[in-house]
Amino acid sequence: MWFQNMVSADMDFNQLEAFVVSQTKRREGALTEGQANAFRRFWKSHKNKIHDSLVVDTNWNNSLKQVSWRIDVKSQSKNVDQINEPTAIMELQLQGNSISKNTEVVQFEMDENKLITVLQSMKDIESEINKYSHQ
């Protein structure tokens, strides 16, 4: 039960210390000082491995492994107005989930307007993430 609390909260060392102290002061089923020290040593040695393992095990969808891009200028097009227009060529490498380790490559092009829209969407996402993060 104690270990599950430590893992589910992804406790840092200050949180762990407060948690362990509270568990040693319980009236019933309290941790002994030896048990508390064992938890501290174990958590210090294995916290990152446990966290990384949980992240891998709970990743149900593909994850972005690599992004490559370049800007090209169109030299041929069905529409004459599009010739000499810059185009972003994107390549995304997607890694399968923890069950399927397959890598998939997705390639696509974006014109200037679409690129501006995507960049604005990314800024909006970053703004939302920053609202809820501890930065």
From TrEMBL:
It holds the Pfam family COMMD1_N. GO terms for cellular component: endosome. GO terms for biological process: copper ion homeostasis; negative regulation of protein localization to cell surface; negative regulation of sodium ion transmembrane transport; positive regulation of protein ubiquitination; regulation of proteasomal ubiquitin-dependent protein catabolic process. Residues 63-133 form the COMM domain. It comes from the Eukaryota. PROSITE patterns: COMM. InterPro entries: COMM, COMMD1_N, Murr1. Belongs to the COMM domain-containing protein 1 family. This is COMM domain-containing protein 1. It comes from Mizuhopecten yessoensis.
